């Protein structure tokens, strides 16, 4: 019984940290989307997010902890599940019992994590360097204009390989969320008249947000041909 209890606790921890990351994803998408419609708005929000004390000193560390926690727990869960089912799973194995996305959460998760490595290198490391090592919090370039929009666009303009890697990662993020987001509510025991609506919402979110990111990356690439 103890084993079952801890395995449920692990799944709940996975669901809660996943839901937290989904919230981050929604705000990250909303802010990034402004880069398509209004460079000025994107610059202003970026400057705010990049210099606000609450965002930088509280939310950012919580977010990074959330990413690491979700990733480490995901591994632990997978290893425990595999050792628990190593004998009996042979006869239940295969696509007949569970869809591909639910059986490959670790694989899609690892690809998203690898993407995050590249993504941090692309944006975050540079930001930390300019702001906290060079000590330049102005957000301005040498011409005295906000630098965020042009720096973001530069990652995609004339960079077909990076765009392709990003797009591939977003597709796998979609697959990861298609199972993960919906099942997090199940894990939390949500089972009422809203369950069906929640399922529709989570599946729609899992498709719309990653495809929105695809749109942003391809937009900046095509807009600068
Ligand atoms: C076209 C798509 C995307 C663009 C243009 C983009 C852009 C950015 C930029 C400009 C930053 C730097 C923020 C800073 O100043 O520190 C950033 C940070 C980050 N991005 Fe993205 N992003 C995209 C997609 C994603 C996706 C799909 C994920 C998650 C799976 C993600 C996760 C993160 C994380 C975790 C950070 C670090 C946040 C922090 O500053 O603490 N991004 N992104």
The distinct bound ligands, ions and cofactors come out as: protoporphyrin IX containing FE
Q: Name the average pLDDT.
A: 92
Please identify, by name, the CATH architecture: Up-down Bundle
CATH class: Mainly Alpha
Q: How many discrete structural domains?
A: 1
CATH topology: 3 helical TM bundles of succinate and fumarate reductases
Largest sheet: none
Ends apart, CA distance between termini: 61 Å
SSE pattern, N- to C-terminal: HHHHHHHH
Strand composition percent: under 5%
Helix content: over 70%
SSE-based structural type = mainly alpha
Radius of gyration: 20 Å
Give the number of DSSP strands.
Answer: 0
Q: What oligomeric arrangement do these chains adopt?
A: single chain
What count of helical segments does DSSP give?
8
Shape: globular
Q: What are the low-pLDDT stretches, counting only 5+ consecutive residues below 50?
A: none
Keywords: Membrane, Transmembrane, Transmembrane helix
InterPro entries: Cytochrome_b-558, SQR/QFR_C/D
Protein name: Succinate dehydrogenase
Q: Can you offer a commentary on this structure?
A:
There is one protein chain. The protein has 225 residues and is an all-alpha fold. The protein has one domain (2-86, 99-222): 3 helical TM bundles of succinate and fumarate reductases (Up-down Bundle), CATH 1.20.1300. Helices cover 79% and strands 0% of the residues. The chain has eight helices and no strands. The protein has helices at residues 2-37, 39-51, 53-85, 100-103, 105-133, 148-154, 160-187, 195-222. Helix 1 packs across helix 8 and helix 7 (160-187) packs antiparallel against helix 8. The longest helix has 36 residues, at 2-37. The termini are far apart. 17% of the residues are buried. Protoporphyrin IX containing FE binds at residues 25, 28, 32, 50, 60, 63, 67, 112, 119, 123-124, 127, 152, 170, 173, 213, 216-217.
